[in-house]
Write a structure and sequence with these properties.
Layout: H1 2-14, H2 22-33, H3 38-43, H4 50-61, H5 66-91, H6 98-111, H7 114-120, H8 122-140, H9 143-156, H10 161-172, H11 181-191, H12 194-205, H13 235-242, H14 247-258, H15 266-281, H16 285-308, H17 315-336, H18 338-342, H19 346-349, H20 352-357
Length: about 350
């Protein structure tokens, strides 16, 4: 597992982001923090940049290059995903065939979302933390870890507050998991009813305006980061944005619609809650896309656990379908971000130590 996380870190260290990428702006921010006293660094940080500022300042203080910032975060994020896989493997997969263990590993490997973590950093890193602590919270009741990790993830990216809140709800109301499918049905209907969803969002968003991290442009139908996302303004863009990039979600949605859950299943209830939120915000591309990202991580675990518990005889078929959707999305991402990924080819022939110390 370390080798995979290290490989992702090596690649991310050599990436040179275009000006339009979040990573480019992050590097500019890191440069602006050099030489500042800690008090000023902390005071200037917005709620979603507290951890970012402190870590970037520490890296600059010890003289490490800003590329180490990306590499280390990609390494930690990937490792958190693989730690969940290792726990599943050691606790549940020991008696399974090598073929199934490979399929389970592939689900985790493809759902890491390396490109999105490396190009954006904050949201992907926060998602990986929430995924890890959420898994520990659901299966092992590690409440202290969940509390500390939730606060940490929030200060990485405020959006983490939503999946954390849904995790708490799923824990409190898991006894209703057998009746949670109505949330999936409602979410599916809402996806097909953007006008009604707009009324719901308009009414609900007013309650969040007092929050310092609230970004109204994510909830406006005409905003570039809301319903008017630039990539969705053409037929090809719609196919890519709502077809290819959400294919794994559609596979998961079909599974949840036809799958009968067991009683007191907190993970299933969490997935149903997420589908409902996705349904409400489906036409708001950036917001719903972030919910889908964390949803896919948890669904992968649920699909594997479902197969292990023999709940649903077609689970293996869905695992293959889910892997295929993730693989197709990953291949498209490689094509879409080819300039970003292959702008530097150092990672092909240089081991990590030589990359870190230079030429």
């Amino acid at each position: 597992m370390l080798s995979f996380a290290l490989a992702f870190a090596v690649i991310s260290y050599t990436l040179v982001p275009p000006e339009s990428y979040d990573l480019y702006r992050h590097y500019a921010r890191i440069d602006s923090l050099k030489g500042l006293p800690f008090s000023e660094v902390f005071a200037s940080a917005e709620s979603g940049y507290v951890v970012f500022h402190i870590y970037a300042w520490l890296i600059s203080l010890v003289g490490l290059p800003k590329e180490f910032f990306t590499a280390s975060i990609v390494f930690i994020s990937s490792l958190l995903f693989f730690l969940v896989y290792l726990d599943l493997k050691n606790k549940h997969l020991a008696g399974m065939s090598g073929q199934f263990r490979l399929m389970a590993f592939t689900v985790f490997w493809l759902s890491v979302g390396f490109i999105m973590i490396a190009s954006g950093i904050r949201n992907g890193f926060a998602n990986s933390v929430v995924f890890y602590i959420g898994y520990q919270f659901i299966f092992y009741n590690r409440n202290i870890l969940f509390l500390v990790g939730s606060l940490f993830s929030f200060f990485i990216h405020p959006f983490a507050a939503l999946p954390v809140f849904l995790l708490v709800l799923s824990k409190l109301f898991k006894r209703f998991s057998r009746h949670a499918k109505f949330l999936v049905l409602a979410g599916t209907v809402l996806m097909l009813s953007p006008t009604f969803s707009s009324y719901v969002i308009s009414g609900v968003s007013d309650f969040f305006e007092f929050l310092p991290f609230y970004k109204p442009h994510y909830f406006r139908a005409d905003s570039e980061w809301g319903g008017g996302f630039h990539a969705t303004r053409s037929t090809a863009g719609l196919i890519v944005s709502y077809g290819i990039k959400r294919l794994s979600f559609y596979v998961a949605l079909i599974y949840l619609l036809f799958h009968s859950p067991k009683s007191r299943d907190g993970l299933y209830f969490l997935l149903c809650l997420m589908v409902f939120i996705i349904g409400i915000t489906f036409h708001l591309y950036a917001f719903s896309g972030r919910v889908i990202s964390i949803f896919v991580h948890f669904f992968g675990v649920y699909l594997i656990i479902t197969y292990l518990n023999r709940h649903g005889k077609y689970a293996r078929v869905y695992i293959i379908g889910f892997i295929s959707a993730l693989a197709f999305h990953s291949l498209f991402h490689i094509y879409e971000y080819s300039e970003f990924l292959f702008g530097s080819i150092d990672w092909i022939y240089k081991p990590l130590p030589f990359i870190l110390i230079g030429n």
